[in-house]
Specification:
Length: 279
């Protein structure tokens, strides 16, 4: 039996810090390819993103001290979003989706630039993933290498046809609440982040990798999204509650825009291993 098969592999990555003009050698711990965790996938019934503007220096203040991530500049601002995804048939690849779980998931996320390689690339940092399903809450961490919090969710249309989205913590405190106005309106909310729906689609397509605090202290889990490009439409929305604005009380988050994904698509998440956060 090859005893080295269960040992972690260490990869040395060298990149140049253009600000200091010197080379940095970074050590990233990845999973042994033979022990790679399975991917998870499912069909997305609904996906909403509620976007907030933030000054870049304020965003940097709340970011973890990671040399390989920096705030992504979008028209002079940082972008913080609340992302909500309604899954049907979420399961382990390649098991049939008919055996999967229906769940609403959500996360606060902000856009970053990954500078761990010679060519910087757009990415996303998630403060933490959440689910309204107890099974996913209990066992999701084993698949994603990061904690999955428990939420309550209510997504209902009222008599006017407006969609009320309420996401709560287990103690019944509200995490996020918004109303998506279904009535057609002539004046869409002016966005300072995105000039058009096509601009937002490009922004999303260029950020399919994500980092999240891992279940292992000092490590960060990287997950890569594998899906066909989404079409999005801008929707008129009203924010009723935003717990992150309370937590980041001096961040001055400004609601900028909201978008809804069009159509139902398969959504596959690949676990790419762990990054060492102490570098």
């Amino acid at each position: 039996m090859n005893r080295s098969a269960n040992r972690p592999i260490y990869i040395v990555v060298v990149y140049r810090d253009s600000m200091k003009n010197n080379s940095l050698t970074e050590l990233l711990t990845t999973k042994n390819p033979l022990m790679k965790k399975p991917s998870v996938y499912g069909n997305v019934l609904d996906r909403y993103l509620f976007n907030f503007r933030i000054n870049l220096d304020k965003l940097e203040k709340y970011m973890p001290s990671l040399k390989w991530l920096e705030p992504r500049n979008v028209n002079g601002y940082g972008v913080v979003s609340f992302c909500l995804v309604n899954f049907k048939g979420l399961t382990v690849w390649p098991l049939p989706k008919a055996l999967g779980i229906n769940t609403v998931t959500c996360a606060y996320r902000y856009s970053v630039t990954d500078i761990s390689k010679p060519e910087p690339s757009p990415s996303v940092y998630l403060l933490g993933r959440n689910t309204d399903n107890s099974f996913v809450n209990r066992f999701g961490a084993q698949m994603l290498s990061s904690k999955v919090g428990k939420i309550t969710s209510s997504i209902k249309k009222d008599k006017k046809g407006d969609l009320n989205i309420d996401i709560g913590f287990p103690d019944e405190k509200m995490m996020f609440s918004a109303t998506v106005l279904q009535a057609k309106y002539s004046n869409k909310q002016n966005s300072l982040l995105f000039e058009s729906e096509e601009d937002f689609e490009k922004f999303m397509e260029n950020g399919k990798s994500s980092y999240t605090p891992a279940t292992t202290d000092g490590k960060y889990s990287r997950l890569d999204l594998e899906t066909k490009p989404y079409r999005y439409e801008q929707v008129n929305a009203r924010i009723n509650a935003n717990s992150l604005a309370e937590e980041w009380d001096d961040a001055d988050l400004v609601f900028d825009s909201a978008y809804s994904a069009l159509g139902k698509k398969q959504y596959k998440i690949n676990n790419m291993g762990l990054y060492n956060g102490s570098l």
